[in-house]
Amino acid sequence: MQKYNYFPINKSLFLFFIQIAKNSFLRSNHSGNYYICCSIESLIIMIHETIKKNGITFGIITGLTSVLITSLIYSIDLNLFTSPWIGFSNLALYLIIAIILLTKTKKEIQNTFTFKDAFTTYFISALIGIAISVVFNIILFNIIDPAAKDTIKELTIKFMVSAMEKFNAPAEGINKAIKDLKENDQFSVTGLLKGSLSNIVFCTIFGLILAAFFKSKPSSQE
After folding, report:
1. 122: Cβ contacts below 8 Å, ≥ 6 apart
2. Any idea where the domains of the chain sit in the sequence?
3. Residue 125 in contact with residue 55, Cβ under 8 Å?
4. Are 137 and 145 in contact (CB under 8 A)?
5. Contact 34, 22 (CB under 8 A)
6. Which of 55, 103, 157, 183 has the most beta carbons within 10 angstroms of its beta carbon?
7. pLDDT value of residue 178
8. pLDDT at position 167, please?
9. From CA 21, how far away is CA 7, in angstroms rounded?
10. For residue 26, what are the β-bridge partners?
11. What's the whole-model pTM score?
12. Do 90 and 69 meet the contact criterion of CB atoms below 8 Å apart?
């Protein structure tokens, strides 16, 4: 049985990729034996130092901003956690931070600011910001003041019922929504981690849009 019986049509293509892998990740010594090349250029895709620096810096800024906002709301009035205006204001603030980040990075990079560069810059920042926010919320609502999350849940239920009644939602729908909220603790460790995954998905989509906007245009369009 031949070695590539499972890929009879693509054997030449398979060998082509094997050769690319050898050229990219392996080096041969004088005896003809191959060894793994541990140089950064061969093993990972290089990330521009400015991208890493700004991504990390603005990620910390984003995370600390989230911590500050949560702390202020917690200190002033827990009802603000259910305020749509607070939610919209947060989105606007994070958008401004992202625009400043990408504008600054694009200006500092001397070469072309590619789609990948723009997305990587934002995504590094978003991941760090989400991580800081989640860790703080876990500590605040599960260690420092676990009772606060129960209060917020009740306030959320009241707000949701009021909003659904204004839109003449059927009683069955309201009751189901109340049941779902009571069964799901959004501020538990599990709830916060699940929420962070949703935030990462949202930030990925948001980052793709921003990257398309901030990437350098072809020289013919500039």
Report:
1. 55, 98, 101, 102, 203, 206, 207, 210, 211
2. 11-42, 47-217
3. yes
4. no
5. yes
6. 55
7. 85
8. 85
9. 18
10. 36
11. 0.74
12. yes
